[in-house]
Design goal:
binds glycine
């Protein structure tokens, strides 16, 4: 009970504080509260004799609140190690490093998994953050192999990395907007190895996507289907959004984050322009709700009883922190928005009470409403990007001080 009061107090404090005026005491209190909450996620003690299909990585909760664990093959498997690495870089506490190392090691064989595009999602939060924190050469090798595996999915006719192999009756060569996130692994590999092939493929994918995935107002379709011989666009659909013509909220978040990261890696102003146009769509056209946490799609005809997607807000907050560094004109707008989103996610409305939700931090995310899957639940990637946003906020504040 006492612990719950501490959490609510510091969450309340953080939410109540004005942007840029939060004291470091409150920051520490929040990190303490986050650490206490994460302790409720059941960590493996013994990882010997694990099999490939074992369900070990926390992903979400069922409707009745039961913990859902997934195997290393799931697209979300890298985020739990990523949560642990984020906690290590936020706190410097070695206990997080030990846990992160344990969970990262469990993903090692995924470096060869070429069955979909998700290598970046899996390997950058786990091995990528791990390498940044430790310079462990073994992590570097895994990441380079993962990048090699990812580029086997590139098709020159299309100019993109193929996203999925499933639903072949529906798509000959599907590319989803989420795929931009995987390019970070290729930019990383190009810098580390000096091999331009990774870079060139990432840039080709980014340019093709910029050409074909966006509407005039810079909202994004979810899935673009290509002809794999000619590279012609065959279809523009949704898979997780409300309609083909609507803007699935997390898709817009991936787009914003994606082009911000691609600008960081290329310094090509066309990509910065794209990120800023997407930001303008999110801020001025789509219109976020008052608490800045989007409903699961921006074009729902009736919002009554529709769930939010806190994961989209967490991804956007993290992206807006980064984008604020690349523009003087909109810097204050993006920073204010990122801080306000983070504060909203840290409020009672979205932040789990201590000991509830099996240790997940954020409530009210939506995985796939059309598939009736993971509706209004915690999701591990919401927690990952929330912690990354906190880290980026700290970095920016430290540079200001
Ligand atoms: N990349 C899958 C998703 O955002 O749900």
């Amino acid at each position: 009970m006492k612990q719950i009061t501490v959490l609510m107090l510091c969450v309340g404090l953080l939410y109540g504080c004005k942007t840029h005026q939060r004291s470091s005491v409150t920051e520490n209190d929040l990190l303490k509260a986050i650490s206490q909450q994460l302790a409720y996620l059941p960590l493996l003690k013994d990882t010997t004799n694990l099999k490939s299909k074992d369900l070990i990585f926390p992903r979400t909760l069922t409707e009745s609140g039961k913990l859902v664990l997934v195997s290393k093959r799931d697209w979300t498997s890298g985020f739990y190690p990523g949560v642990l690495w984020n906690m290590y870089r936020l706190t410097g506490d070695k206990q997080w490093k030990e846990k992160a190392e344990l969970y990262t090691a469990l993903l090692t064989s995924e470096q060869y998994n070429s069955s979909n595009h998700d290598l970046g999602f899996k390997m950058m939060p786990s091995f990528g953050l791990g390498y940044e924190a430790t310079n462990n050469e073994a992590y570097k090798k895994v990441l380079i192999q993962a990048a090699k595996t990812l580029i086997t999915r590139f098709n020159e006719n299309v100019g993109c990395i193929r996203s999925w192999d499933h639903n072949r009756d529906k798509w000959e060569f599907p590319v989803i907007i989420d795929n931009l996130m995987n390019l970070e692994l290729l930019f990383w590999a190009s810098k580390e190895t000096g091999n331009p092939v990774f870079y060139n493929i990432a840039v080709a994918h980014a340019k093709t996507t910029m050409r074909n995935h966006f509407r005039e107002n810079y909202s994004s379709f979810h899935v673009v289907g290509y002809n794999l011989e000619t590279g012609a666009v065959i279809s523009k659909n949704t898979h997780q959004g409300y309609a083909d013509s609507s803007s699935w909220s997390r898709g817009q978040a991936w787009a914003l984050y994606g082009y911000t990261m691609i600008y960081r890696e290329t310094k090509d102003l066309a990509f910065l322009n794209q990120a800023e146009n997407i930001a303008n769509y999110i801020i001025n056209v789509a219109k976020l709700p008052e608490d800045l946490v989007p409903f699961w799609d921006f074009d729902l005809p009736d919002l009554k009883s529709e769930p939010r997607d806190a994961s989209a807000a967490a991804v956007m907050a993290s992206a807006f922190f980064e984008l604020s560094k690349y523009t003087s004109q909109h810097k204050d707008t993006y920073l204010h928005l990122a801080n306000s989103m983070l504060n909203s996610l840290t409020s009672k409305q979205y932040f789990s009470e201590l000991g509830t939700n099996n240790g997940f931090l954020l409530k009210h995310s939506t995985g796939s409403k059309p598939k009736n899957s993971e509706i209004d639940v915690p999701l591990v990637y919401a927690d990952y990007y929330y912690l990354e946003a906190l880290f980026r906020k700290n970095q920016i504040q430290n540079q200001l001080n």
